[in-house]
């Protein structure tokens, strides 16, 4: 997964990574928010979900201490990272800003 993850974040368009856990209630809320964000940004950005229990090495590599944690990458560079649940407008604006 690590090699594939590296390829994902090397993208020319912004990639929002949702670090989540299946047992996490706020993560479920964030997931439904991200569905709307995806509709808003369309092909302008990608949204990828990473289960921290399945891929702890990736979570650890990017300093994920709690879930949900969202991170935006472009051309392999971490542009933004924050923990907690975020709203549709904030995330849509962030992704459009990095397009």
UniProtKB/TrEMBL annotation:
GO terms for cellular component: cytosol. Keywords: Disulfide bond, Electron transport, Redox-active center, Transport. Disulfide bonds join 24-27. The record marks 18 as: Deprotonates C-terminal active site Cys. The keyword Electron transport applies. The keyword Disulfide bond applies. GO terms for biological process: cell redox homeostasis. The record marks 25-26 as: Contributes to redox potential value. Residues 1-99 form the Thioredoxin domain. CDD domains: TRX_family. The active site is at residues 24, 27. InterPro entries: Thioredoxin, Thioredoxin-like_sf, Thioredoxin_domain. PROSITE patterns: THIOREDOXIN_2. Pfam families: Thioredoxin. GO terms for molecular function: protein-disulfide reductase activity. Belongs to the thioredoxin family. This is Thioredoxin 1. It comes from Chryseobacterium limigenitum.
């Amino acid at each position: 997964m690590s090699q594939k993850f590296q390829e994902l974040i090397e993208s020319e368009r912004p990639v929002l990574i949702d670090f989540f856990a299946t047992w996490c209630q706020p993560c479920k809320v964030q997931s439904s928010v991200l569905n709307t964000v995806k509709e808003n940004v369309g092909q302008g950005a990608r949204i990828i979900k990473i289960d921290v229990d399945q891929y702890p090495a990736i979570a650890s590599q990017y300093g994920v201490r709690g879930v949900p944690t969202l991170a935006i990458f472009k051309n392999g560079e971490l542009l933004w990272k924050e923990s907690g649940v975020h709203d549709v407008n904030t995330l849509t604006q962030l992704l459009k800003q990095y397009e």
